[in-house]
Amino acid sequence: MKKIILLFTLIISTGILFNACKNSNSVSPNTSSGTSVYFPSGDGSNYVYAVQATDSTGGTITGTRSATYSGTSVIGGITFQKEIDTLAFGTGVNVATSYFKVSSSEVDYFLDTTGLSTSIPDSLIKYLSFSPTLKAFSFPFQSGQTWDVFDMGLKIGPLSIPVINVTANYIGTQPITLNLTSGQSNQTAAVVNFVLNLTIPDLSNPLATPTKKSYSAVAWLVQNIGIVKWQGSGAVFSAFSGNGVSLGDTTTTVTQTLLSYNLK
User: What pLDDT is attached to residue 34?
Assistant: First the structure.
């Protein structure tokens, strides 16, 4: 049961950390009215990343990730943009669809619970409580800014047990060199740190002290491009991508760096 909870919560949380990452090929202005310059979201935009995972022994696996914004879908009366991700990592290829919406103040991702029953037993689903969306970014970025990304918990009788809490904080700006396929580009990036705190309760003894784990990831965003780099815990990455990296090796780190982008 503990393993089921761990896998499920990591899958949920990683959606925000990976699906929020966007890449591009030439710096062009963000023409989408009312959206943030840090997250261009024109339909048809495409991004390609180089992906590398390094485990605790120093071994590495490399691959690529392509993300394309393709149309919209209405979910619960709200219009979301669709993102198609293709991850070629190691020996496998995984294609996934996610849904997001961008405004001048934030980027939110829809949390799809359609397949929840296949991951969590019915006996546990009824106790889960969580928001239907994930708040990836909060704009404008300001010094010392923090925000809640996602919370999920269990409520069993009078007990409320936190399971996962994801927070983000704006660190500041840093110079960054983009090694694009079209050549190098020197930019200034806004840096956001994500922290995932995971609490694994002992459901056979709710009063027992739960096991706690913490994972982190950092995103670098450039104005009029989007996220140009992401680096973080492999435990988070593997649960989302299904690329075979061991969930048991929490020392694995994964880096995504922008190769090319094409904004529409």
Answer: 40
d(CA 200, CA 5): 7
User: What is the number of domains present in the chain?
Assistant: 1
Q: Which contacts of 208-215 are long-range, i.e. CB under 8 A and separated by 24 or more positions? A: 210/161, 211/2, 213/6, 213/250, 215/10, 215/13, 215/250
How many Å apart are CA 176 and CA 227, to the nearest integer?
Answer: 12
pLDDT digits (tens, 9 = 90+) for 164-215: 788 899 999 999 999 999 999 999 999 999 888 878 777 677 678 888 888 8
Alpha carbon distance 222, 236 (integer Å): 23
Half-sphere exposure of 219 (CA within 13 A, CB side): 23
Distance CA 228, CA 132 (A): 27
Q: CA-CA distances (angstroms) from residue 129 to 81, 126, 132, 161, 196?
A: 25, 8, 10, 10, 17
Provide the domain limits for residue 236: 2-262
pLDDT band with cut points at 50, 70 and 90 for residue 235:
low
Residues 6+ apart with CB under 8 A from 165: 148, 150, 151, 196, 197
Whole-model pTM: value is 0.79
